[in-house]
Amino acid sequence: MAEHDPSVTDGASATDASKLKTLLSILKRTVGVKDLASLRISLPAYMMEPIPNLEYWNYQDRADFFVTVGDYEDPMDRMLAMVRYAVTKELKFVHGKVVKPYNSILGEHFRCHWDVEPLRTDASGGFVPHQSVGNTKPPTHLELVTKQPQDHDGCKKRVVYVTEQVSHHPPVSFYYYACPDAGLEMTGVDQLSAKFTGTAMRIFSGEKNQGVFVKLTYGVRAKSAVGEEYHLTHPAGAIFGLFRGSFWPAVTDTATITCTPAPSANGAKPVYLRALLEYVEEGWLSKPKYAVEGVVYAYEPDHASASYTSVRKVPSDRVLVYIQGNWRGLLTWRYKDEKTTHPLIDLADLEPCERKVRPLEQQDELESRRIWSGVTKAILEKEYSRATNVKIDLEQQQRDQAKARAEAGTNFVPRYFEDGIENGKPKLTAAGKAAVLDELRRDNSKDMPLPTKN
Question: Each residue of 39-71: pLDDT tens digit?
Fold first, then answer.
């Protein structure tokens, strides 16, 4: 267990220097460890952001891009819409700082929802994001393939989220999203692994994390897409600047988006599309470039083309669209045989959309914000010793409960999800379905804002 840094006193903010000193003292003992998630490392409270892990690692920073995936009749428009969503699902890392949320305890769960206005297209066949945008410049006008306007009459759509921590060692959580009005369901398993290389912290998906699974259901506008599924894999991440005293995150490795088309109603040949996004590796001493390049190409099921791992391995005769740009700024797309590029998305325009969370008195005792409310209150009041002590008590309760289960010969049983995983796609229990329905029906009159530090 990491010791509380004596240089940080109650009532004083922790400096980056003191945080760095504590962090490096911990990390230097972990060089060569295959997976830091397997270690039982407890950080002092002053190094943590006052937000639960299950709330922090959600994939709806831009739920407005998510709900419009099924709007388009053209398969390429839907794939590009999914690429837009994929690069916004963790928008917090584009504008935000590197933070450490609370570690989840076994059985902890979190629920929330987003009410978003879908993206609108205009007569020119493009659209401009209008929700949660920055004020420095007018948002970039984004272009579609088919240039067909979509009118949503300004009606907001609700995306609901339920997640539960189902394992503590290793840390694993299940999650489920739904937007019935947009005909979208999304599910998956979260498990992060980490390794300290001596110059950077590397973060990647754990073995149970098979990516994100999105299914288009009967609520989608493009009725020909009902039953279509997308499988998104996560890129890796890294934290540089540990020895400069100024942390900065980088996205690395490759992310894929594979579309399994819906069965054709009229006998037409299905269109199998797959996207590859390669994030250029940053040198730990070099100036960050944040570059990304990618392709959308035609693949064949049960063929090598369904598992290409890099852009250069994709034969040119399969490539349909090229993607390039900056994952903190503008990404563009173009057809293989044209020179003109079209704006796909500009991350610099966007801020995370607001999520809605019930007040503490309406939450279950194992809901994230209620569990960690004592730690959060102490951190916000800059009483770091008290925050650390409350955190230690919670961790000891977990150890006591684990010991009691071991002595009784019983296993933990999740509440909202069925025990076990089928192809990386968790299934809701009756209680989980009820929680989703409750979140869909609730009003926002007493929603709870995210606590922030002064």
Answer: 556 677 777 889 999 999 899 999 999 999 999
